[in-house]
Amino acid sequence: MNSSDPAAANSFSPFIPAEREELTVRFYRGERMVRYGEWVMDLVELRRNEILYLANGTATPAALLEATQRVIGERGSMNHAAELKDQIKEVEKELWYRGERGDHDHAGIKLKWTVDHAAAWRRGRIREYQFVAEHYATEVVALLRLASKDSKQAAS
Q1: How far apart are CA 75 and CA 68, in angstroms?
Q2: What is the 3-state secondary structure (H, E, C) of the chain?
Q3: Tens digits of per-residue pLDDT, 30-74?
């Protein structure tokens, strides 16, 4: 990641109330987002120095969480294999829907889904990851503060 890139600074925007409500309902229903908690924590551990840098030395929970959400937005993926499987499931649903209507051009349907929906699907998944990071804010902040203390002790 290039932290001096102006676009990088704007890779996270706060959730609007309707978006937060929808994500909260989906999270508590157990719709796939529960598994993202582990992925978020793995990312925090792996990218902790970058997150701490983006927080500009501020150890407030809000700054650490926002920096984590920015890194998630810039990274764009947490688990490539699982995401690919999920996208394939979405394409298969589209193939089924269209097949029920008599459209059996699988290559064309796949291409159209990719053009029409892939980018929005990716943005939605990133927002889910950012939401889960917020849900696990206490754990995220604790891990980052521990990492910050460890690096300060190693430097002294």
Answers
A1: 11
A2: CCCCCHHHHCCCCCCCHHHHHHHHHHHHHCCCHHHHHHHHHHHHHHCHHHHHHHCCCCCCHHHHHHHHHHHHHHHCCCCHHHHHHHHHHHHHHHHHHHHHCCCCCHHHHHHHHHHHHHHHHHHHHHHHHHHHHHHCHHHHHHHHHHHHHHHHHHHC
A3: 768 888 999 999 999 999 999 999 998 788 999 999 999 999 999
Amino acid at 31: E
* Residue 48, token pair as written in the block: 């902790």
Whether the pTM exceeds 0.70: the reply is yes
Angle separating helix axes 106-135 and 61-75, nearest 10 degrees: 170
